[in-house]
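@channel sequence for tomorrow's demo:
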Amino acid sequence: MADRLTDLLETRPWLLADGATGTNFFAMGLQHGDAPELWNLDRPDDVVRHYRSFIDAGSDVILTNTFGGTANRLKLHGAQDRVFEINKAAAELAHRAIEESGRKDVIVAGSMGPTGDLFQPLGPLTVEEGAAAFAEQARGLAAGGADLAWIETISAVDEVQAAVMGAKAAALPYAVTLSFDTNGRTMMGVTPAQFAALTHELEPRPVAFGGNCGTGASELMAAILNLEEAKDAADVLIAKSNCGIPEYVDGEIHYTGTPELMADYARLALDAGVRIIGGCCGTTPEHIRAMRSALEAHEKGSPPEMATVIAKLGEISKGAEQQQAGPLGDIPEAPAGREGRRRGRRGRATG
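C-alpha coordinates (generated this afternoon):
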Protein backbone atom coordinates (compact mmCIF):
# COMPACT_ATOMS: atom_id res chain seq x y z
CA MET A 1 0.00 0.00 0.00
CA ALA A 2 1.56 3.32 -1.10
CA ASP A 3 2.23 5.62 1.81
CA ARG A 4 3.50 9.14 1.10
CA LEU A 5 3.58 10.00 4.81
CA THR A 6 6.08 7.25 5.62
CA ASP A 7 8.12 8.16 2.55
CA LEU A 8 8.35 11.78 3.71
CA LEU A 9 9.25 10.75 7.26
CA GLU A 10 12.22 8.84 5.85
CA THR A 11 13.68 12.16 4.70
CA ARG A 12 12.71 14.32 7.69
CA PRO A 13 13.25 14.04 11.47
CA TRP A 14 9.85 15.66 12.12
CA LEU A 15 6.79 16.94 10.29
CA LEU A 16 4.57 19.84 11.28
CA ALA A 17 0.83 19.23 11.07
CA ASP A 18 -1.78 21.97 10.88
CA GLY A 19 -3.98 23.56 13.54
CA ALA A 20 -7.68 23.98 14.22
CA THR A 21 -10.44 23.79 11.62
CA GLY A 22 -13.58 24.97 13.42
CA THR A 23 -11.78 27.75 15.30
CA ASN A 24 -10.51 29.25 12.08
CA PHE A 25 -13.77 28.78 10.19
CA PHE A 26 -15.61 30.63 12.96
CA ALA A 27 -13.26 33.53 12.33
CA MET A 28 -14.29 33.32 8.65
CA GLY A 29 -18.00 33.47 9.43
CA LEU A 30 -19.09 29.92 10.26
CA GLN A 31 -22.03 30.02 12.67
CA HIS A 32 -22.23 27.82 15.75
CA GLY A 33 -24.31 24.75 14.98
CA ASP A 34 -23.54 24.83 11.26
CA ALA A 35 -21.55 22.08 9.57
CA PRO A 36 -18.14 23.24 8.29
CA GLU A 37 -18.13 20.23 5.96
CA LEU A 38 -20.85 21.84 3.85
CA TRP A 39 -18.42 24.63 3.00
CA ASN A 40 -16.58 22.10 0.80
CA LEU A 41 -19.50 22.48 -1.61
CA ASP A 42 -20.96 25.88 -0.75
CA ARG A 43 -17.81 27.95 -0.05
CA PRO A 44 -14.88 26.10 -1.66
CA ASP A 45 -12.70 29.20 -2.01
CA ASP A 46 -12.87 29.77 1.75
CA VAL A 47 -11.89 26.16 2.40
CA VAL A 48 -8.89 26.57 0.10
CA ARG A 49 -8.02 29.80 1.93
CA HIS A 50 -8.13 27.89 5.22
CA TYR A 51 -5.82 25.16 3.92
CA ARG A 52 -3.45 27.73 2.40
CA SER A 53 -3.18 29.60 5.70
CA PHE A 54 -1.60 26.55 7.32
CA ILE A 55 0.47 25.52 4.31
CA ASP A 56 1.91 29.01 4.13
CA ALA A 57 2.58 28.96 7.89
CA GLY A 58 4.73 25.87 7.41
CA SER A 59 2.48 22.83 7.86
CA ASP A 60 3.66 19.64 6.17
CA VAL A 61 0.42 17.75 6.92
CA ILE A 62 -3.01 19.31 6.45
CA LEU A 63 -6.25 17.70 7.57
CA THR A 64 -9.26 17.84 5.29
CA ASN A 65 -12.41 19.67 6.34
CA THR A 66 -14.24 16.39 7.02
CA PHE A 67 -14.09 15.84 10.79
CA GLY A 68 -17.87 15.32 10.86
CA GLY A 69 -18.02 13.75 7.42
CA THR A 70 -19.86 10.52 8.19
CA ALA A 71 -23.56 10.12 7.43
CA ASN A 72 -24.13 9.86 11.19
CA ARG A 73 -22.97 13.44 11.64
CA LEU A 74 -24.16 14.90 8.36
CA LYS A 75 -27.74 13.72 8.95
CA LEU A 76 -27.96 16.44 11.60
CA HIS A 77 -27.80 18.87 8.68
CA GLY A 78 -29.86 16.88 6.15
CA ALA A 79 -26.74 15.98 4.16
CA GLN A 80 -26.43 12.27 4.89
CA ASP A 81 -26.88 11.47 1.19
CA ARG A 82 -23.91 13.63 0.20
CA VAL A 83 -21.14 11.88 2.13
CA PHE A 84 -19.07 10.81 -0.87
CA GLU A 85 -19.45 14.18 -2.61
CA ILE A 86 -18.52 16.22 0.47
CA ASN A 87 -15.46 14.17 1.36
CA LYS A 88 -14.20 13.97 -2.21
CA ALA A 89 -14.50 17.74 -2.58
CA ALA A 90 -12.60 18.36 0.66
CA ALA A 91 -9.60 16.34 -0.50
CA GLU A 92 -9.66 17.88 -3.96
CA LEU A 93 -9.67 21.37 -2.44
CA ALA A 94 -6.66 20.45 -0.32
CA HIS A 95 -4.77 19.47 -3.46
CA ARG A 96 -5.83 22.73 -5.08
CA ALA A 97 -4.42 24.65 -2.12
CA ILE A 98 -1.13 22.74 -2.30
CA GLU A 99 -0.82 23.41 -6.01
CA GLU A 100 -1.51 27.11 -5.53
CA SER A 101 1.10 27.28 -2.75
CA GLY A 102 3.85 25.94 -5.00
CA ARG A 103 4.87 23.34 -2.42
CA LYS A 104 5.04 19.67 -3.37
CA ASP A 105 5.89 18.08 -0.02
CA VAL A 106 2.53 18.50 1.74
CA ILE A 107 0.50 15.49 2.88
CA VAL A 108 -3.31 15.48 2.52
CA ALA A 109 -4.71 13.68 5.57
CA GLY A 110 -8.38 12.76 5.33
CA SER A 111 -9.87 13.71 8.69
CA MET A 112 -12.28 11.12 10.12
CA GLY A 113 -13.74 12.14 13.48
CA PRO A 114 -16.17 10.28 15.76
CA THR A 115 -19.60 9.35 14.47
CA GLY A 116 -21.20 11.01 17.49
CA ASP A 117 -23.04 7.79 18.36
CA LEU A 118 -22.18 5.42 21.18
CA PHE A 119 -21.38 1.82 20.32
CA GLN A 120 -23.19 -1.15 21.79
CA PRO A 121 -23.89 -1.92 24.60
CA LEU A 122 -23.89 1.75 25.66
CA GLY A 123 -25.58 2.95 22.50
CA PRO A 124 -27.22 1.79 19.27
CA LEU A 125 -24.24 1.50 16.94
CA THR A 126 -22.59 -1.83 16.08
CA VAL A 127 -18.97 -2.03 14.95
CA GLU A 128 -20.17 -3.21 11.53
CA GLU A 129 -22.49 -0.20 11.17
CA GLY A 130 -19.73 2.14 12.25
CA ALA A 131 -17.32 0.54 9.79
CA ALA A 132 -19.83 1.01 6.95
CA ALA A 133 -20.23 4.70 7.82
CA PHE A 134 -16.47 5.25 7.92
CA ALA A 135 -15.97 3.28 4.70
CA GLU A 136 -18.39 5.56 2.84
CA GLN A 137 -16.46 8.58 4.08
CA ALA A 138 -13.07 7.05 3.35
CA ARG A 139 -14.03 6.19 -0.22
CA GLY A 140 -14.89 9.82 -0.85
CA LEU A 141 -11.57 10.96 0.65
CA ALA A 142 -9.67 8.42 -1.45
CA ALA A 143 -11.47 9.53 -4.63
CA GLY A 144 -10.43 13.11 -3.89
CA GLY A 145 -6.79 12.14 -3.53
CA ALA A 146 -6.24 11.92 0.23
CA ASP A 147 -2.87 10.38 1.02
CA LEU A 148 -4.18 8.63 4.12
CA ALA A 149 -7.10 8.48 6.51
CA TRP A 150 -6.50 10.52 9.66
CA ILE A 151 -8.71 8.99 12.34
CA GLU A 152 -8.85 11.53 15.16
CA THR A 153 -10.37 12.53 18.50
CA ILE A 154 -11.52 8.98 19.18
CA SER A 155 -12.32 7.75 22.69
CA ALA A 156 -13.52 4.14 22.31
CA VAL A 157 -11.76 0.96 21.20
CA ASP A 158 -14.80 -0.10 19.15
CA GLU A 159 -14.75 3.19 17.24
CA VAL A 160 -11.03 2.85 16.50
CA GLN A 161 -11.66 -0.62 15.11
CA ALA A 162 -14.63 0.54 13.03
CA ALA A 163 -12.71 3.49 11.59
CA VAL A 164 -9.74 1.29 10.71
CA MET A 165 -12.10 -1.12 8.92
CA GLY A 166 -13.49 1.85 7.01
CA ALA A 167 -10.04 3.05 5.95
CA LYS A 168 -9.10 -0.46 4.82
CA ALA A 169 -12.27 -0.71 2.73
CA ALA A 170 -11.06 2.35 0.80
CA ALA A 171 -7.49 0.99 0.55
CA LEU A 172 -6.15 3.97 2.52
CA PRO A 173 -3.24 3.78 4.94
CA TYR A 174 -4.19 5.45 8.19
CA ALA A 175 -3.05 7.30 11.29
CA VAL A 176 -5.09 7.36 14.49
CA THR A 177 -5.15 9.67 17.50
CA LEU A 178 -7.15 9.41 20.71
CA SER A 179 -8.27 12.28 22.90
CA PHE A 180 -6.91 11.87 26.42
CA ASP A 181 -8.73 13.99 28.98
CA THR A 182 -8.04 14.89 32.60
CA ASN A 183 -6.72 11.90 34.58
CA GLY A 184 -4.89 10.54 31.56
CA ARG A 185 -7.64 8.43 29.98
CA THR A 186 -10.02 8.92 27.12
CA MET A 187 -13.68 9.58 27.92
CA MET A 188 -14.22 5.83 27.40
CA GLY A 189 -11.44 4.94 29.84
CA VAL A 190 -8.57 4.01 27.51
CA THR A 191 -5.05 4.77 28.81
CA PRO A 192 -2.08 5.65 26.60
CA ALA A 193 -0.45 2.28 27.35
CA GLN A 194 -3.62 0.41 26.41
CA PHE A 195 -3.84 2.43 23.20
CA ALA A 196 -0.25 1.56 22.26
CA ALA A 197 -1.04 -2.13 22.83
CA LEU A 198 -4.15 -1.82 20.65
CA THR A 199 -2.22 -0.30 17.73
CA HIS A 200 0.08 -3.31 17.77
CA GLU A 201 -2.92 -5.61 17.37
CA LEU A 202 -4.43 -3.75 14.41
CA GLU A 203 -3.90 -5.11 10.91
CA PRO A 204 -2.37 -3.35 9.17
CA ARG A 205 -0.75 -1.23 11.85
CA PRO A 206 -1.23 2.53 11.65
CA VAL A 207 1.53 4.47 9.95
CA ALA A 208 1.45 6.78 12.99
CA PHE A 209 -0.56 7.15 16.20
CA GLY A 210 -0.81 9.43 19.21
CA GLY A 211 -3.01 12.00 20.89
CA ASN A 212 -4.97 15.09 19.93
CA CYS A 213 -7.39 17.56 21.48
CA GLY A 214 -8.00 16.74 25.17
CA THR A 215 -7.59 19.42 27.82
CA GLY A 216 -4.38 21.27 27.10
CA ALA A 217 -0.76 20.95 26.04
CA SER A 218 0.52 19.75 29.43
CA GLU A 219 -2.11 16.98 29.70
CA LEU A 220 -1.39 15.83 26.16
CA MET A 221 2.34 15.79 26.85
CA ALA A 222 1.72 13.53 29.86
CA ALA A 223 -0.12 11.11 27.55
CA ILE A 224 2.67 11.32 24.98
CA LEU A 225 5.33 10.48 27.56
CA ASN A 226 3.30 7.44 28.59
CA LEU A 227 2.86 6.45 24.94
CA GLU A 228 6.59 6.78 24.39
CA GLU A 229 7.23 4.28 27.18
CA ALA A 230 4.79 1.78 25.66
CA LYS A 231 5.54 2.07 21.95
CA ASP A 232 7.83 -0.02 19.76
CA ALA A 233 11.04 1.46 18.42
CA ALA A 234 9.61 1.73 14.90
CA ASP A 235 6.36 3.43 15.94
CA VAL A 236 5.76 7.03 14.81
CA LEU A 237 4.06 9.24 17.38
CA ILE A 238 1.67 12.14 16.74
CA ALA A 239 0.94 15.03 19.11
CA LYS A 240 -1.74 17.54 18.15
CA SER A 241 -2.53 19.56 21.26
CA ASN A 242 -5.22 22.10 21.95
CA CYS A 243 -3.88 25.63 22.13
CA GLY A 244 -3.80 25.93 25.91
CA ILE A 245 -6.94 25.65 28.02
CA PRO A 246 -10.44 26.53 26.75
CA GLU A 247 -12.19 29.32 28.62
CA TYR A 248 -15.74 30.58 28.16
CA VAL A 249 -15.60 34.37 27.80
CA ASP A 250 -18.50 36.62 26.76
CA GLY A 251 -20.40 33.73 25.24
CA GLU A 252 -17.46 32.43 23.22
CA ILE A 253 -14.79 29.80 23.77
CA HIS A 254 -11.25 31.16 23.84
CA TYR A 255 -7.97 29.30 24.27
CA THR A 256 -5.21 30.50 26.56
CA GLY A 257 -2.26 29.27 24.52
CA THR A 258 0.10 31.88 23.12
CA PRO A 259 2.47 31.29 20.19
CA GLU A 260 5.27 31.12 22.78
CA LEU A 261 3.52 28.38 24.75
CA MET A 262 2.87 26.35 21.61
CA ALA A 263 6.51 26.78 20.60
CA ASP A 264 7.55 25.37 23.98
CA TYR A 265 5.11 22.49 23.51
CA ALA A 266 6.54 21.72 20.06
CA ARG A 267 10.09 21.55 21.41
CA LEU A 268 9.03 19.33 24.33
CA ALA A 269 7.09 17.03 21.98
CA LEU A 270 10.13 16.62 19.75
CA ASP A 271 12.29 15.82 22.77
CA ALA A 272 9.68 13.24 23.83
CA GLY A 273 10.13 11.37 20.55
CA VAL A 274 7.15 12.76 18.62
CA ARG A 275 7.72 13.01 14.89
CA ILE A 276 4.42 14.58 13.76
CA ILE A 277 3.60 17.69 15.78
CA GLY A 278 0.64 20.02 15.32
CA GLY A 279 -2.15 21.87 17.05
CA CYS A 280 -5.83 21.20 17.64
CA CYS A 281 -8.62 23.42 18.97
CA GLY A 282 -7.71 27.09 19.12
CA THR A 283 -4.51 26.73 17.10
CA THR A 284 -4.17 29.40 14.40
CA PRO A 285 -1.64 29.83 11.59
CA GLU A 286 0.19 32.28 13.87
CA HIS A 287 0.71 29.50 16.40
CA ILE A 288 1.83 27.08 13.69
CA ARG A 289 4.32 29.61 12.34
CA ALA A 290 5.85 29.95 15.82
CA MET A 291 6.00 26.17 16.16
CA ARG A 292 7.76 25.85 12.81
CA SER A 293 10.40 28.38 13.80
CA ALA A 294 10.89 26.66 17.16
CA LEU A 295 11.32 23.21 15.63
CA GLU A 296 13.72 24.40 12.95
CA ALA A 297 15.94 26.02 15.57
CA HIS A 298 15.73 23.19 18.10
CA GLU A 299 18.16 20.31 18.49
CA LYS A 300 16.36 17.27 19.85
CA GLY A 301 17.17 16.56 23.49
CA SER A 302 16.31 13.93 26.08
CA PRO A 303 12.65 13.21 26.93
CA PRO A 304 11.52 15.90 29.40
CA GLU A 305 10.67 15.21 33.01
CA MET A 306 7.09 15.97 34.02
CA ALA A 307 8.40 18.80 36.20
CA THR A 308 9.74 20.47 33.06
CA VAL A 309 6.45 19.97 31.21
CA ILE A 310 4.51 21.49 34.11
CA ALA A 311 6.91 24.42 34.42
CA LYS A 312 6.58 25.32 30.75
CA LEU A 313 3.01 24.29 29.90
CA GLY A 314 1.02 24.28 33.15
CA GLU A 315 -0.30 21.91 35.77
CA ILE A 316 -1.68 18.46 35.01
CA SER A 317 -4.01 16.12 36.81
CA LYS A 318 -2.41 13.44 39.00
CA GLY A 319 -3.98 10.65 36.98
CA ALA A 320 -2.40 11.91 33.77
CA GLU A 321 1.14 11.80 35.11
CA GLN A 322 1.43 8.03 35.25
CA GLN A 323 -0.78 5.43 33.61
CA GLN A 324 0.16 1.77 33.85
CA ALA A 325 -0.29 -0.72 31.05
CA GLY A 326 -3.22 -3.09 31.35
CA PRO A 327 -5.35 -5.38 29.20
CA LEU A 328 -8.09 -3.74 27.16
CA GLY A 329 -10.62 -5.76 29.12
CA ASP A 330 -9.79 -3.64 32.18
CA ILE A 331 -11.11 -0.48 30.56
CA PRO A 332 -14.04 0.82 32.62
CA GLU A 333 -17.41 1.48 31.07
CA ALA A 334 -17.94 4.97 29.75
CA PRO A 335 -20.69 7.26 30.97
CA ALA A 336 -23.95 6.60 29.16
CA GLY A 337 -26.72 9.01 28.37
CA ARG A 338 -26.49 12.69 27.58
CA GLU A 339 -22.92 13.25 28.79
CA GLY A 340 -21.56 10.33 26.81
CA ARG A 341 -23.30 11.49 23.66
CA ARG A 342 -22.21 15.08 24.13
CA ARG A 343 -18.58 14.10 24.55
CA GLY A 344 -18.84 11.80 21.55
CA ARG A 345 -19.70 14.82 19.44
CA ARG A 346 -16.79 16.91 20.69
CA GLY A 347 -14.89 18.98 18.20
CA ARG A 348 -17.83 20.27 16.15
CA ALA A 349 -17.92 23.66 17.85
CA THR A 350 -14.34 24.14 18.97
CA GLY A 351 -12.03 22.12 16.74
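heads up for whoever presents: The first strand starts at residue 15 and ends at 16.
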